[in-house]
Sequence to fold (136 residues):
Amino acid sequence: MARPVDGKREEFRKYLEKTGVIDALTKVLVSLYEEESKPDDALSYILKSLCDSSAVKAEVDGLKAQLAESAAKNKELRVEIAKLKGEEPPADDEPAPAEAPAEAPAEAPADGEAPAEPPADAPPEEAPAAEEPPAE
Fold:
């Protein structure tokens, strides 16, 4: 009689086979076996081999192309903004200016947190008067 664990194992094996995991691992292990000089760190070799797959390379190439397109669009928009503001367009090698507020308002601490330290250039505050203990 088949135990329930055997059924789960077989289902998992079919899943790994269907998704290509078994083929990928087999190819990597065969390439490791066929290496003339075995690497000192077999695990690193396996990880590197799995990460160097063509699917990953294709995704990286696609992301690089997308980044180049975004950078070009960013440059176009910065030039357009400069023209609308009546400023000189930024040079090609000039990084985009950081748009940050001059001074952000201090946030109130969340419940249970200690209040934030005052800035170093803030005037000193007077300490609140200590309460006297009640008379007995």
About this structure: Residues 1-52 form one domain. The helical segments are 4-18, 21-34, 42-51, 54-85.
